[in-house]
Amino acid sequence: QSKGKKPLFVQLVLDNIWSLYEAVMKRDKEKIEKIVTSLGLKIGPRESRHADPKVHLNAICSQWLPISDAVLSMVCNKLPSPLDITAERVEKLMCVGARTFDSLPPETQELKSAFMKCSSEGTAPVIVFVSKMFAVDTKALPHNKPR
């Protein structure tokens, strides 16, 4: 970096994203066309002629770097299978704070085996685990809004 060289990530990834962003925001049609054809993308005329350049940028990026596909494949490849969970881990997930698994109601304790089986049968209980909760202002909640 001291000799004017950029890090490899900047050269290979960020410079390309920045050049695309700059070309779309400045409406450089020649450069945009070159980028779209080199990436093999098909951008509709509606998006390319839209008054807001962010629509055009979104159309290009959603085909070039689809985040939903990347996140889903990462989750599938990196997260361990739920069938590999240990009994101790299930008990930890089912207990909150200082409570022990033995102090839970019997109905809840019976869910441990269903939790470990991960069965998709129609008779199997549906278990939902909320891993993170955050505070939301009551003004932001959809109270009594017409549907």
UniProtKB/TrEMBL annotation:
Any GO BP: cytosolic ribosome assembly
Recorded GO MF terms: GTPase activity; ribosome binding
Matching Gene3D superfamilies: Yeast translation eEF2 (G' domain)
A Gene Ontology term for the protein's cellular component: ribonucleoprotein complex
PANTHER family membership: ELONGATION FACTOR-LIKE GTPASE 1, TRANSLATION ELONGATION FACTOR-RELATED
Protein name: EFL1 GTPase
